[in-house]
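Researcher: Before we compare anything, I want clean individual predictions. No alignment, no superposition, just each chain on its own. First chain goes here; please echo the sequence and then give the structure tokens.
Model: Echoing the first chain and its structure:
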Amino acid sequence: MKPGFSIRPFTPDDYDGAISVHLSVYPEYPNTANEWRDADARRHPDLFFRRFVAEMDGKIVGLVGGGPEEWANHPGLVSFNIRVRPEYEGRGIGAELYDRFLQEAAVLSPTRITSEAREDKPRGIRFLTKRGFVEEMRFWESQLDVDAFDFTPYAGCEERVTSQGIATKTYAELASDPDRDRKLYEMDVEISLELPAPDPITPASFDRYRVQVLESPHLLPDAIFVALDGDRYVGITSLWRVEAGEHLMTGLTGVRRDYRRKGIALALKLRAIDYARRHGSPQIRTDNESNNRPMLAINERLGFVKTPAWIAFALTGDFLPQRHEDTKNEEFS
């Protein structure tokens, strides 16, 4: 144990302290303690998950958390993330958190360990690469200034989709469809399986989809826009509320393969932007992988502006690293 700080398991009393650490590193992602509590409560009860905190000077100064991902649940695959307060970097806290997490995760016999670092956080990148992690993919959060958006160039886009027999309804408007939730789930799975990702998607069950998506406190029933061909659900985009901040987050956006290149995705995105403006949300945020060119092209066309890229890293092979003097004081940010 490094002198001056201690590592211990996370407890329910630690949410405020843990969020404080997160916000010290990424204030632009204003998560709240309530959101973390809710996310933890919705975790699959049978999936391994561990979180540890580092304490120093009477407060939480770092944390690590991770385990298998429910939607990328492959044997031997483990993911984790570390946060350390910037003013406590360079003291070996991140290294000790990493080691403690690996000790716990050893029960899973991991063959692949993944994590992320943002391109403007060189300490985080250095922390991972010195331990053998290799970059696999980049993805961006992009942001749209809703108030500045000009609908004029897109006049007629929705009408062209409608003329092809495609209607658009919200999740709330589809309440009379007894199969609504099942249809939404099946479309979500079909589209998600084709999205670029470092690891293949492993769809959750319908019951878990209900828990994670349809029963989420962030769901906005009138901001989930579904494209329909008759009674078949063929495309979707959605906006989600956040507890802190006035912006809206974009959920899944996609169209079934046999309905692509008809302008449906663009029309759905325009409906979402109109919703945000009518409800006074100044900004929409979305995430896209670097090799998802079709969706990146739509967002770029609409005026979404990329923020610094997140880099997906993976460690394979001899994944149980030895501590070396040249890495022990590198901190993850």
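Researcher: Okay. Second chain, same rules.
Model: Second chain and its structure:
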Amino acid sequence: MHHISVLALEGCEGGCVTGAIDLLNAANTVWRQQAGKTARPLFEWSLVTPDGGPVSTATGFQLSADASLAEIDRPDAMLIGSIHFYDAGQLLAAAHDAAPILRPLTAIRDAGCLLAASCTATVLLAEAGLLDGRRATTSWWIQEAFAYRYPRVRLVAEDMVVEDQGVVTGGASTAYMSVMLNLIRRFAGDELALFCAKVLLVDTNRHSQAPYSYLESGIRVRDPLVTRAQAWMQTHLREAFTFEQLAGILAVSPRTLIRRFRQTTGYNPAEYLTRLRIDEAKRLLERTNLPLEAVAERVGYRDPSSLRRIFRRTTHLSPSEFRKRFSIADDPGII
């Protein structure tokens, strides 16, 4: 029997913590249906808190612990539950404050325990140094702040789930389900994991966060030059311009603009402009029934085929596929 621990911190996302355990319970139920009711369960679990005491979820529900971090006895895997933050700056500060209580995770990992986390909990692993030198993903809306704060992590932000050297990371919020299916697959096989996904209606082909992501709003840009450049690009999306022209408008050299832009955002100005244009194209595809030619013109592409190519490269979906999946437009006049 495989023992999986779920670590819950104060202010955790209750759905992630209890939902992870629900997935393990579902795996046991499916297994018994296949192997017989007398079959031994494949999984057992424990709810762990830093000191063994109860914690409250972000919505006020209280969770009772089975053990403290110091008391758990060599679990096969541990999922760190995500914590409730939607501001990157506050999240990073909270992770820094939580670092001392997460120190036992290093010894737990060194003892052979597989560590797993998704969404905001990936920041906790990074703050503890457990992602240094590893490939990892995180929630799309904190990827720029994450990359800036943790440069030693090999961030693969588009991926929904990444496993590297005994650590599994997942993307935003409900990606914990994909992370748990990864653990079920590892310990119980592909067939059982797939059947659990079907029973629970989890899309196993959801490999990328790219269709869901927009440029992060949580990071605070403190460079006034970059702020001015961002504002100018946002209001001139339709126009063709060079970055030499933009640098001239801002009264700096192109080299200075590129250097300070990359230092602040993680992108060079051309990459950032492409993200802005694709984000606006997403918004138009979601909220209007404009034809692709009109969408392309509004975001600065004279040729719809160019938008189609760059859109697919960025989101892993064609514009028509994206519109089918995310459209909320009933009226072509909605903007």
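Researcher: What stands out in the second chain?
Model: The chain has two domains: 2-212, 224-326. Additionally, The domain at 224-326 is CATH 1.10.10.60 (Arc Repressor Mutant, subunit A).
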